[in-house]
Amino acid sequence: MHASQIPQSSGGVHKLRHQPTANFEQYYSPYHVVNNNSSDASSSGTQLSYQTQNENFFTLDSLPDAGYVSYDSPPAVSVSSNWSPFSPQCSQSYISDQHHSSDNTYGSPLSGCSVINDGNELKHVLREMANNLLGPGFDIDEDSSCSFNGEVSKPSKWNRVLEIAPSLDMKELLLACAEAISDVEVTARDAQMNVLEKKVSDADVTARDALMNVLEQKVSVSGEPMQRLSAYMLEGLKARIYSSGSNIYKMLKCKEPTGSELISYMQVLYHICPYYRFAYTSANVVIEEAMRNESRIHIIDFQIAQGSQWVFLMKNLAHWPGGPPSVHITGVDDSQSAHARGGGLHLVGERLAKAAESCGVPFEFHAAAISGCEVQLENLQIRHGEALAVNFPYMLHHMPDESVTTANHRDRLLRLVKSLSPKIVTLVEQESNTNTSAFLPRFRETLDYYTAMFESIDAGRPGDDKQRINAEAHCVARDIVNIIACEGADRVERHEVFGKWSMRLRMAGFTPCPLSPSVGEAINGVLKEFSPNYRIAENKGALYLGWKNRALATSSAWR
């Protein structure tokens, strides 16, 4: 479906206008902003470290059965339903939950009572709405998906929800819209497979569209965080309904601003939230410590972008006792980075060569202008005698796994890297669980994760800030639309929680490397420039970055 055929929304992604802004700074690399979900029941007795930017590290010898860990955070902090280092009170309820989704079996040890795991969330919402506004006679049937007991039919259920829809908040409306869409999809799929004789009813479709119309009156890309997030999630729902998710995703890519404009939008995010700097700062500390006694270093960066991360590393290497090592960097390219740079990888090589020369670091650059899915051994210029470090910064979740293709590039790439016998591998990923989840739990997870993300962005810039609007539209909204609207190979945003990454890496033959205190100290220094609602926690070898009670990203090291 062409863009002109897609219903237009006042808060829609495709209605945003690009505003030219300042030229790019040298530090920025393309980053797909992204959450925590899922769990590991064994987390109940683990040692956890908690820290905010104004605190020293402290340790819990074991998790409490109930209650809260106290922080120096504002009293208005919202409590997420996700278990994380930042909301330990959920651990027991997760461990006792025997109905937990199998999709989350290998989830993060620091998360448990996740929205994605609570398949009954909308059911609870509808039950509460029904009891409060329709009377206690209308209860939710526990054996069906959000259907009312008694003689009330599914169309009647949605009609009654429509009656109270104007009084619902945006989260309730989003969940109701997603449930209505799921109902229509399931009925249509079952009818197509001859599981059901009946077809999708006009009443179901009307209810779905009416709920979305109510929601559309409340969203705004320049409003409060929930209004802005709802605008983009509504756009994703529309794209899904009209089977245009992949078209919208491609259209958004085609309508990207110029390279300098895109870099300026990334620059906004760089300044107002710490996700970029969390990635390259933690990886640089790990790599420098691992290579301390090496004279020849080879770094393979699978998301080289602008190469700014390595400018800072070379400045540190220049001060090594006895002189700096020689540095050989192989940069793997991606299309978004090339667009932002306004040219090929030779621009990165030239820039890094100048930085190395200014620091007195012997340097060589090798360009691998291919996607991660295409990388083979011969593309990586491996040399005998060079200590190898491999960097995966927010990129592995773009590699399709076994659920998408039998080629399983996600695990193939890990096995390839393991065969190179690297001295250290750094992995930074969004702490979210959207890879193999069905539409409805994936929608809940996306809502929960990006609620925290948009709140954190809002702390750095007000809602009506034009540059922030552009930054969200071009660096965040496209990913949201893709997660919600697309399926199969078209869905490229396929995040996994740390527990699942850990299993993949172990199955590929890697073992975890404990992070030294220097990593946490370096990130703590970065967070001093941002809101006190950002915090870090360490568990099972991974460093978690969170906003209030929600883990948003993890950094870990492997060999």
From TrEMBL:
Signal peptide positions on this chain: none
Region (Leucine repeat II (LRII)): 347-379
The UniProt record lists the keyword Nucleotide-binding: no
VHIID as annotated region, ranges: 266-331
Motif range (LxCxE motif): 175-179
Motif segment (VHIID): 297-301
Keywords recorded for this protein, A-Z: Transcription, Transcription regulation
Region (SAW): 485-559
Pfam families (UniProt xref): GRAS
Entry keyword annotation includes Transcription: yes
Record family assignment: Belongs to the GRAS family.
Protein name stated in the entry: Scarecrow-like protein 13
